[in-house]
């Protein structure tokens, strides 16, 4: 976070400045927020415990984001107070949130967006919320209601039920954020592929946004609907130490990411189709952690790593790089 220090406060504007035009070009822009908000100097991110200042939400909003998913393995890094603070801070900044709610009366999702005649619902799930190792069905004791954000607890059928409920509330599109897969592995797991197949074939989910591997994974179309298994890292300080976790790719790939630009089109009969373009990105850790858009000419190695992975496996999505 030191790169965002401005005197006694924080300014995240420079970090997002180069990708902000791409983010703002979307009718709805959604991020994956893998840190609780509200941290001060005493509890900022350290080691594997995440925490970011409230100003980060302002930075996201000014960059063009409309909301974020919040279900991930760091959701409870600042305990239940952090979950509640994150929700309050996001709302104050004008950001919506899909993920664990603050109490049993406020389930926390779906987040609802409106754009170009579409009502869009976003749902968010994770394999764990508090990094309980080896138990993907462990529910934080202080927040039993969050069981509904654990995909191994509710299964694909539970996610489909949530999607149907969102449609009953008027959603034309249902987007599902999944925190899944193996860290540092550009290959998808059996579990990722199984959930993607079940959800997209059910007809209840229109698009799956994947995160957690911290490297880019491929895009796949299943029964006419798409999944980006992992968008990689947008802003991260991951270093060579992550290799100790058995990663199968170079640490250079942990600095790569992508902005998926998915266009949904509805024809006269009400049938919805989707197409994807993507903007490869890279975290410039050496120069203030600026998120840089990557092109074939500006950073050929990063561009090639991201593009080759996204379009691997036959590129059933027909995804194309913006630059």
From TrEMBL:
InterPro entries tied to this protein: Capsule_synth_CapA, CW_Biosynth-Accessory, Metallo-depent_PP-like
Record-linked SUPFAM superfamilies: Metallo-dependent phosphatases
Positions with biased composition (Polar residues): 300-314
Stored Gene3D superfamilies: 3.60.21.10
The Capsule synthesis protein CapA domain, residue ranges: 1-238
Taxonomic superkingdom: Bacteria
Annotated stretches, region: Disordered: 300-323
One Pfam family, short name: PGA_cap
Family as reported in the entry's similarity comment: Belongs to the CapA family.
UniProt-recorded name of the protein: Poly-gamma-glutamate synthesis protein (Capsule biosynthesis protein)
Biological source species: Flexivirga oryzae
């Amino acid at each position: 976070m030191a790169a965002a220090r401005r005197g006694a406060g924080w300014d995240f504007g420079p970090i997002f400045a180069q990708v902000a035009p791409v983010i703002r070009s979307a009718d709805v822009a959604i991020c994956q927020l893998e840190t609780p908000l509200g941290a001060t100097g005493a509890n900022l991110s350290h080691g594997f415990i995440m925490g970011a200042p409230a100003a980060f939400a302002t930075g996201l909003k000014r960059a063009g984001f409309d909301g974020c998913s919040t279900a991930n393995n760091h959701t409870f890094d600042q305990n239940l107070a952090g979950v509640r603070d994150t929700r309050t801070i996001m709302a104050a900044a004008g950001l919506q949130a899909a993920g664990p709610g603050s109490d049993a009366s406020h389930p926390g999702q779906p987040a609802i967006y409106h754009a170009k005649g579409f009502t869009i619902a976003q749902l968010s799930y994770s394999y764990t919320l508090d990094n309980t190792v080896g138990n993907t069905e462990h529910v934080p004791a202080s927040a039993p209601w969050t069981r509904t954000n654990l995909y191994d607890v509710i299964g694909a059928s539970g996610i489909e039920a949530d999607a149907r409920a969102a449609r009953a509330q008027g959603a034309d599109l249902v987007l599902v954020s999944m925190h899944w897969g193996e860290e540092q592995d550009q290959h998808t797991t059996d579990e990722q592929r199984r959930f993607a197949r079940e959800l997209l074939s059910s007809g209840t989910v229109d698009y799956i946004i994947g995160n957690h591997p911290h490297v880019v994974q491929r895009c796949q179309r299943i029964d006419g609907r798409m999944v980006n298994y992992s968008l990689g890292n947008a802003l991260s300080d991951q270093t060579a130490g992550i290799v100790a976790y058995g990663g199968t790719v170079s640490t250079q790939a942990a600095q790569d990411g992508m902005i998926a630009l998915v266009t949904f089109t509805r024809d006269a009969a009400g049938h919805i189709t989707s197409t994807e373009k993507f903007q490869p990105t890279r975290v410039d850790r050496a120069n203030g952690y600026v998120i840089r858009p990557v092109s074939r000419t500006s950073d050929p190695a990063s561009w090639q790593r991201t593009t080759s992975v996204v379009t691997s496996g036959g590129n059933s999505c027909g995804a194309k790089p913006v630059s």
